[in-house]
Amino acid sequence: MIPAKYNLRNLKVRWVTTLMTVVGTGLVVCASVLTIGLVDGLEQALRVSGHPLDLIVVRKGSTDETSSGLEQSVARDVASLSGIAKSESGQLLCSVEHVTILTKPRRNNGGTTNLIVRGLEDVGRQLRPEFRISQGRDLTPGVNEAITSRQMAERFENLGLGEKLEINHDNFEIVGYFEAGGSSAESEVWTDLRDLTSARRTPGIASSVNLRAQNEAALESLVQELAEDKRFQLSAIRETKYYEDQMESSAFIKYIGYFIAVFLTVAAMFAAANTMYAAVASRGREIGTLRALGFPRSSILISFLFESVVLCLMGGLLGCLATLPFNGLSTGTANFASFSEITFSFQFGPRVLLQGVVLALAMGILGGLLPAIRAVRLNIITALRER
Fold first, then answer.
1. pLDDT value for 188
2. Does the predicted TM-score (pTM) go above 0.70?
3. Which residues pair with 101 in a beta bridge?
């Protein structure tokens, strides 16, 4: 077996080519890991939004809150159903809510996009994961105040603390930033239900009822009762299913991201192969000498493959390290289920970084295989005559 120090010495001697290959591979791995981290961040934001015992109740025939409309009087009757869980203070975990979509400008002349504004009752906060006010204070009902997340304030105009968001010619002052466990709730602006419906000139209308069942049996009973009771004309959607459907509607982002990653990987494989072909062409005499010394073809094949793998793994590790500053960085994309923008954070956990390393390993093996085969096929006499 050819000692590994032989390959490492060759990489050091050909340091310019080595550096170019490592940097090129690192850039590809960095771009691929960023893409995977973006997709994982979006899926994580939607995944944590759903509680297994929560239901979203909408008008029968509607598939989401934005297309649903129901009388608030009917919505409040839902609270009379049995099986709804209560908070520690004894309050029913059942919130009547109104959702509207506004077209608002992004900061820094970033164009306009749709923004979700949700009017909800106080109890609605307990139906969101890990809700807390991170800066400022919570809103006071009845005086046109609103809260949002820091990410949304950084992306949209008029959402900073003290700024005012116009809703149908009424100004709502932003008084606080909130967090909700990284869920899709952080992509919304919240205000009081009555304030929002008053501004929208629809005081008796709601979009949905969000509630939590006592247990799985109670949840099944509520779903069946709402579907069969003709008084309500409502349907209940499991919150987990609701956000799974949103993930499916955004699946094209995932497919495009993976397509780009595969395209870049193939390009990097060609670059690695080109580097190794150049190495074989310039080291014909060395290969002939190794054969003359009695090293078998298999040892030379493994040696060149090892060299290619080391090159690409170095680039892979460099690319993974380059993504770490982006971990947790907030960004946003279109949510085609609600035709609005959703904010989320890049996620670079061990699994994503391992995928980057595996990607680099695949580049090294596939990119170095053909040049390694060419090396072992060189005729000994011809190789020894090369200069």
1. 93
2. yes
3. 116
